[in-house]
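User: Sequence in, structure out. Go.
Assistant: Echoing your sequence, followed by the structure tokens.
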Amino acid sequence: MSDWFFKQGGRDKLSNLLGLDAKIDSTLSETWSRIRDAWNAGQTFFARFQLTGWKRLFNELASEGLTLGAGGFVVLFALAIPAFNEFDEGKFLTGRYSVKFLDKDGNEIGKRGILHNDAVPLEEIPESVIKATLATEDRRFFEHYGIDVLGTVRALAENLRANDVVQGGSSLTQQLAKNLFLSSERSLERKIKELFLSFLLESRFTKREILKLYLDRAYMGGGAFGVEAASQFYFGKSVREVNLAEAALLGGLYKAPTKYAPHVNLPASRARTNEVLQNLVEAGFYTAAEVHEARLNPAKIVEARTTDSPDWFLDYAFEEVQKLAEGKGQYVLTARTTIDLSMQKAADDAIVPFIRQRGRGLRLNSGALVAMETDGAVRAMVGGPDYGESQFNRATHARRQPGSSFKVYVYATALERGYKPTTTVRDASRSCGRWSPSNYGGGGGSGSRLPLWLALAKSLNTVAAELSFAVGRENVIEMTQRLGIKGIRKSCSMALGDYGITPLEHTGGFATFANGGKRALPYGVTEIYNSKGELIYSRERDEPAPPQIIKPEVAAGMNWMMNKVVTEGTAQRAGLEFTHSAGKTGTSSGPNDIWFVGFTGRYVASVWLGNDDNRPMAHGNTGGQIAAPIWHDFMAVAHRDMNIPTLPGLDPHPTQVAEQQRIAQLRITDPALAAQLTGEAEAQAKASRRLPDAARDALRQMAVDLRKAAGLTAKPAGGSGGAPAPPAPAGKPGDRAALPTPGRSAGTDTRSIGVVQ
């Protein structure tokens, strides 16, 4: 055996392995020796820098401070990034557009925007207005760098002593940052953003420029932004002409313009004005003798002013006007809108008192309501409980979880893919990863079988989740995009409404079903005229007809099922005695959001309630218990006549049958009244008003042709050929001839669509 081993070269191989092992050992030993030598040399070198006593203590503190400072800088930078993302220099401008708004009947309802050349220069604003502002809002404005630390500490001490919020600690720069870039949401995140944006404003603008921006952009109540607009609104004159008493009244409006507006609460306004006068004395701007006369002679208010300004809607319409007028080169505009002021008042009365009176007990502080025609024409909008306190429009910009009201889009997708309202489904669902759906009150479903419509009426989460898996969640997302709803993402629980939707989008989505399947993107502007009275935009002329995006039979089936939600399901408190209604409740987990979105043959409306900071409400709050009754109360007032179109998929309501019979009789006995009730008179008047425009265009063209034939140079017509005359001020005979009133949506005739069984 040994001869065989040596013949194979085993000894040589064994010798090579031993040599390799020795080489590795020697290399490691040599490396370790060098490391020790280097370490000893380093210790010897740095030994000369060793400190003792107070020097070592100072060195340790400096070292720790440098470490903490570096870490703090990283944290501050991370916190500043969201604030810097909110920074948009375009918002510094007081606006390119100045727009006067008219309601659907042609009556002026408010203004938005102010051009640079219309703004009053800071040098021309009276000293009394500036001093009243600084004395009340930020006395150390010219001494701090965006954040008044001393003022904040003083306000905190006063609030602690009074056990209430009696003083605000925000500097004028902080208030401007909030007005320009942020909402009035009370959260730590918003305050951090406000802090960094204040520093950024101070670094980019002078104190005078910041003060001017604040005076131009602060909301002053009554739909007025800035001291010039407020002076015109309250006193009927320019801010250049105000006296000390009037300046003190303006200075008291910044804190709570709705609360202290003299038209709303004159005693509170007078008391607030006296506080401002006292602030002027305490700040050393005036003596007690100088303000005494202002106390004895308070500001006189122009009484012929309306305070019922639909501010939420005007903000929404102003955004729409800016999009529609972009690129047209016109900046002083008059816009005819879709708002119905009587419906707006009904909307305010339905939701705002509810929040104020019952909000504390239900642990909710905010809400929104949107109402529109079935074609998307917005008739009323409430964007929050108090426009003066916060101008953030929850109706258009708050993306809140729709909860079970989102199930409508899942069920509609199912109907498009062959399901029927009577299709039998099972009260159970598969799991998705680690998530499994459970119904309201707990439990993963009883496993019983029931028709599809009953699952929607009972709002079973298990069935909705299983439907989304069965029809494909991608197809549900495609459905929402078709309806104009953005931002929905694929997730396991998407069928239960886990992604935010604005009330305006949600209402428009439901309107598509109400009108029989035609796209119903919300809109608030029907016509726009320039300063010469020329029509530069007409929805009827410039927008294409809405396409059919959902099959009529699918819309009819959904309407029938959503009517069952009202008659036999979770929304029975939304039932109307005089017409059919349909809709869906929604309650997100927490509950953080409660909804009811519903419609009749004429109007579609959504109600949302919750908290701005997303805190949970009182346990047990649901859309069916809280939101549906508000919707009912609003709709009961909004329908002023019983000539209501029948919803596709439903039989005519007995009240509507009786109304149609009455109108048929009136066609014989009083044709004019019948035409007025059905909207035919309005449509005929609108058509008749177009003839003079067409005739005028023809005559104008004829004159141009004659001048050319005679060898004369044609003079410019001064605008587009088809432009109507400038809109006349409202309230005089013939006003509405210049601005045709858009006809009411005639609804959908459903006599050819049978009830889905």
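User: And one key feature?
Assistant: Residues 684-692, 712-757 have pLDDT under 50 and may be disordered.
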